[in-house]
């Protein structure tokens, strides 16, 4: 398998994704359509003195779902955007946790992709599950400077 993380479109995503940098997120491409995203829970993620804000967990899983889809379409010179995101929060994420989002594409069409994922902490506790619908479109709609 090619290392899709080094594809020019994914490399450009890394440069553009300032929000991911702010939250301390990083990812690895396991294979086409499968991504693992990680985020340590720090003070900037907290909604209470000890628990992460749900928006932080949502940002992590949305990023994982999106990049999983991006690995499906980048070789066709496309990018993706979230059309619908559904999250179920099952347990709190606590300060000091290392969260891992595991996302896999379940169906990939020419324009619409379906993807599912989960977030666990370092103890293997299930924090959240999610599913999303993504729209794929030509990268030229957002930039001509990718290549």
TrEMBL record:
Q: Which UniProt keywords apply?
A: Hydrolase
Keyword Hydrolase set for record: yes
Q: Which GO terms describe its molecular function?
A: fatty acyl-CoA hydrolase activity
Task: Give the InterPro entries listed for this entry.
Answer: ACOT13, HotDog_dom_sf, PAAI_dom, Thioestr_dom
Pfam families given in the database record: 4HBT
Protein name stated in the entry: PaaI family thioesterase
Instruction: Give the source species.
Output: Fluviicola chungangensis
Please verify whether the record's keywords include Hydrolase. Answer: yes
Family, per entry: Belongs to the thioesterase PaaI family.
Residue span, Thioesterase domain: 52-127
């Amino acid at each position: 398998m090619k290392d899709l993380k080094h594809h020019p479109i994914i490399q450009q995503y890394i440069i553009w994704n300032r929000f991911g940098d702010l939250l301390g997120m990083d990812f690895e491409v396991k294979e086409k359509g499968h991504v693992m995203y990680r985020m340590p829970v720090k003070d900037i993620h907290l909604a209470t003195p000890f628990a992460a804000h749900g928006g932080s967990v949502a940002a992590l899983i949305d990023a994982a779902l999106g990049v999983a889809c991006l690995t499906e379409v980048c070789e066709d010179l496309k990018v993706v955007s979230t059309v619908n995101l559904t999250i179920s929060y099952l347990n709190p994420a606590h300060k000091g946790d290392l969260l891992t989002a595991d996302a896999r594409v379940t169906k990939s069409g020419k324009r619409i992709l379906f993807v599912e994922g989960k977030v666990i902490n370092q103890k293997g506790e299930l924090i959240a599950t999610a599913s999303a619908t993504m729209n794929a479109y030509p990268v030229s709609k957002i930039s001509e400077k990718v290549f």
